[in-house]
Amino acid sequence: GSKPSNPAFWWVSDEGEEVKWSFEELGCLSRKAANVLSEACGLQRGDRVIAVLPRVPHWWLLSVACMRAGVVFIPGTSQLTAKDISYRLEASKAKCFITSDRLAPAVEPVLPGSRFLKSKLLVGKGSRAGWLNLKELL
Questions:
Q1: Which of 67, 72, 55 is closest to 30 using CA atoms?
Q2: Where does the record locate the signal sequence feature (predicted)?
Q3: How many Cβ atoms from other residues are within 10 Å of residue 111's Cβ?
Q4: Cα 20 from chain centroid (whole Å)
Q5: Which residues on neighbouring strands pair with residue 12, listed in sequence order?
Q6: If 0-12 CB within 10 Å is exposed, 13-18 middle and 19+ buried, where does residue 16 land?
Q7: Which phi-psi region, left, alpha or beta, contains residue 46 (left: φ > 0; alpha: ψ -120 to 50)?
Q8: What secondary structure letter does DSSP report for 113?
Q9: What is the Cα–Cα distance from 123 to 110, expressed in whole angstroms?
Q10: Which CATH architecture describes the domain 7-136?
């Protein structure tokens, strides 16, 4: 009765910023994120998404959202080169690319060369022309 439930997700940044989500909050947020992937990004079951993100809370949120939407989540490290990203885009036939507002300038020059890419999703506070902003869509 009086004991609070444990969080489903608890993240602490290097600066001490904390993000705690209960199971209910994680469920609600992941449903919303799955809707963003399906509706705003136009993805269907079996489509592939490449995510080049640092390990921020939205990395885990999007991985759960992809499972909910039936979308294949392909994680990538921020150390990938332009050649690595280009190869992964073509080999996977990814239809969506997800990255942070800080990494977007580095990966953006590679993206127009992809034949399959339909949408680009930005995680963070900033905005960029041609990119959907996850925070705004949630």
A1: 67
A2: none
A3: 18
A4: 18
A5: 18
A6: exposed
A7: left
A8: G
A9: 18
A10: 3-Layer(aba) Sandwich (3.40)
How deeply is 65 buried, as exposed, middle or buried, from its count of CB atoms within 10 A (0-12, 13-18, 19+)? buried
Kindly state the DSSP code that residue 117 receives in the 8-state scheme. Answer: -
DSSP letters, 68-111, are HHTPEEEEE-TT--HHHHHHHHHHHT-SEEEEETTTHHHHGGGG
The pair phi, psi for residue 38, each rounded to 5°, is -75, -45
- How many angstroms separate the CA atoms of 101 and 69, rounded? 24
Q: Per-residue pLDDT tens for 17-43?
A: 999 999 999 999 999 999 999 999 999
The conformational region for residue 22 under phi > 0 = left, psi -120 to 50 = alpha, else beta, is beta
Q: DSSP code of 120?
A: E
Question: Which of 44, 46, 72, 75 lies closest to 58 in space, CA to CA?
Answer: 75
